[in-house]
């Protein structure tokens, strides 16, 4: 007996933080709004579509955003209001399904294969959800509808803002074939360049290259790339996603040398260890085996060093010692200065011995 086809919706709010600000202050509507603290160390949390037309994007340095859009209105983030709006949106989701996987305050996966309210199709459900969000929160959302999470997330970006796009099972091959490999999750600039060197620019190219050749070149990640290029993604929508990483990081008021980072690493290790303790109390038996040190240079270059030792860290001091020791594996010039440091734990193993790996400090 064949498995019923999943029906997944990815809902993504449009410029969420900036849209909340424009909703709550009519004087901001139609104007370029950037949600960010001012200052040399700040980064953009969100940008309205008016600001995006000038090239402003989330996560870029606030100073660069000011240069790109001098007329932008900068506002400090107000997470109390953003969380309140997010709760109202998630309450709408719950009218249609209990299978909801939040990714952040402004996006979530919904499995509506067996919905609470059957409107005849997942497309109709997505339309009604978006209409309810607009009516009740005065905010717009975009949605992607597809047979799996990977495709739904790509589709939600197709008709932004305030739109939706459906990828039906029969459309998957044709939809993916021309898609640039840079659109695939996990394919950053470095991987994109490596694939380009092999003559691979689109999902169709990945398929032609073949799974075995990709595995030979990139290991298990090569197989995953081939699966994505074929539209294969068996991940279920999970109501409570297991923690894949616990980390703490800090940006300094003044850039520091590598040898000056130890007190900051130890302070952040204490915060990370406290978070690890909370995770242990929620899920006894889940053990983190990998210690990660993250650094950002004065010119915004990010690097990480990690160690998975035979014995996982068993104390705050052991975590701090390991993170400090990882500095020895940084091969940049001695006078390099750093603006940020982070300490993390990942590589969780479950009580049954299985692994739950994630990308620390990712996305």
Features:
single chain, 363 residues, alpha+beta, five-stranded mixed β-sheet, five-stranded antiparallel β-sheet, 13 helices, globular
Q: Please give the alpha-carbon distance between the first and last residues.
A: 38 Å
Sheet with the most strands, sense and barrel status: 5 strands, mixed
Calculate Rg over CA atoms.
22 Å
What is the quaternary state of this protein? single chain
**H/E order of the elements?**
EHEEHHEHEEHEHEHHHHHEHEEHEE
Helical run tally = 13
Judged by helices, strands and strand pairing, the structural class is alpha+beta
Sequence of strands across the biggest β-sheet: 5-6-1-7-8
Description:
By secondary structure, the chain is α+β, with helices and mostly antiparallel strands. Helices cover 36% and strands 21% of the residues. The protein has 13 helices and 13 strands. It has helices at 16-24, 49-52, 62-68, 79-93, 122-137, 149-156, 172-176, 189-197, 203-209, 211-218, 220-229, 262-282, 316-325; strands at residues 8-13, 33-35, 46-47, 73-75, 100-104, 107-111, 141-146, 164-166, 246-257, 287-297, 302-308, 337-349, 355-356. The strands form three sheets. Strands 5-6-1-7-8 form a five-stranded mixed beta sheet. Helix 12 (262-282) packs across helix 13 (316-325). The radius of gyration is 22 Å and the shape is globular.
In a nutshell, what does this entry contain?
With 363 residues, the chain is α+β, with helices and mostly antiparallel strands. It contains 13 helices and 13 strands. The chain has a 5-stranded mixed β-sheet with strand order 5-6-1-7-8. Strands 9, 10, 11, 12 and 13 form a 5-stranded antiparallel β-sheet that branches.
């Amino acid at each position: 007996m064949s498995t019923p086809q999943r029906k997944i919706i990815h809902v993504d709010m449009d410029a969420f933080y900036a849209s909340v600000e424009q909703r709550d202050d009519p004087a901001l509507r139609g104007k370029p709004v950037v949600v960010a603290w001012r200052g040399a160390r700040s980064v953009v949390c969100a940008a309205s579509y008016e600001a995006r037309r000038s090239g402003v994007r989330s996560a870029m340095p606030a100073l660069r955003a000011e240069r790109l859009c001098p007329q932008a209105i900068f506002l400090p983030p107000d997470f109390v209001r953003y969380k309140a709006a997010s709760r109202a949106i998630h309450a709408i989701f719950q009218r249609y399904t209990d299978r909801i996987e939040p990714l952040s305050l402004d996006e979530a996966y919904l499995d509506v294969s067996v919905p609470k309210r059957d409107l005849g199709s997942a497309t109709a459900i997505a339309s009604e959800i978006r209409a309810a969000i607009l009516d009740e929160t005065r905010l717009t959302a975009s949605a992607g509808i597809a047979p799996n999470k990977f495709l739904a997330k790509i589709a939600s970006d197709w008709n932004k803002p305030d739109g939706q796009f459906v990828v039906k099972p029969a459309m998957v091959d044709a939809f993916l074939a021309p898609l640039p490999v840079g659109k695939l999750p996990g394919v950053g600039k470095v991987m994109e360049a490596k694939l380009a060197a092999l003559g691979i620019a689109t999902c169709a190219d990945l398929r032609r290259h073949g799974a075995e050749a990709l595995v030979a070149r990139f290991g298990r990640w090569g197989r995953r790339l081939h699966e994505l290029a074929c539209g294969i993604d068996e991940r279920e929508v999970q109501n409570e996603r297991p923690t894949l990483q616990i980390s703490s990081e800090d940006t300094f008021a003044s850039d520091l040398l590598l040898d000056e980072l130890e007190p900051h690493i130890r302070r952040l290790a204490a915060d990370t260890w406290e978070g690890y303790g909370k995770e242990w109390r929620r899920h006894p038996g889940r053990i983190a085996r990998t210690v990660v040190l993250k650094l950002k240079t004065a010119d915004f270059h990010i690097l990480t060093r990690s160690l998975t030792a035979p014995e996982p860290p068993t104390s705050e001091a052991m975590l701090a010692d390991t993170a400090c020791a990882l500095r020895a594996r940084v091969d940049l010039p001695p006078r390099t200065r750093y603006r940020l440091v982070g300490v993390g734990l990942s590589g969780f193993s479950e009580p049954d011995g299985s692994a739950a790996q994630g990308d620390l400090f990712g996305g």
